[in-house]
Amino acid sequence: MTFSILSNGSVVRWLAATSVATGLSLAGQPAAAQQAPATIRLSPEDEGRGQYGAQHNFYFLPPGKTGEENYQSAGFFGGKLRPYLAGNASALAELDHYQGHKTAYLIDKAVLVGSLGLYASQVFGHGDAQYFSGTQQVALGLTAASLLGTLFINRHTNEYLKQAVDNYNTGTAGKHGTLWPRLRPAGLGLAATAGHPVLALRWQL
Known about the structure:
Layout: E1 2-7, H1 12-27, H2 29-33, E2 41-42, H3 44-47, E3 59-61, E4 72-73, H4 82-85, H5 89-123, H6 134-175, H7 179-183, E5 187-193, E6 196-204
Antiparallel strand pairs: 1-6, 2-3, 3-4, 5-6
Helix pairs in contact: 5-6
């Protein structure tokens, strides 16, 4: 649906002059719209990661970048993403949660490997093979606790980094006004009505 507003009078000449500048501004909008958005975008594979997902590094496109060749690794702890989140407290808080979970993930893996190694060393540690000694029972308990801990750690780890990116993107979108694009006329021009020059403004809804 198209709406038009016609105005005439002594201000028409001034409006006609300003319409030229406005028209040039509007003409430049399509080129700007084709530029890469000022948001951080995760790779399609990483965007689909959810609960209990893999713990390999995330890859992302920095703001203003396009193309697969520009994807960057966020690093194991997401540290390479941190400079882009500077100034957004909520995004940085989520990234801190992600880093904390990744640290817990490493500790959990160290406990798992250590407990398995301890158990194996006790099997033939006293000559004949021995099973379920006191030390071995402790090692098996640590192994079970580590495996259970992995489930809790991995449940939300990936979601923290994805939420950090989402908070950043939402925050940057809110900093730039969204009212003018809605109110900006879709077209303008000059016409003559009853012998008087008229400035026509048109909105496309």
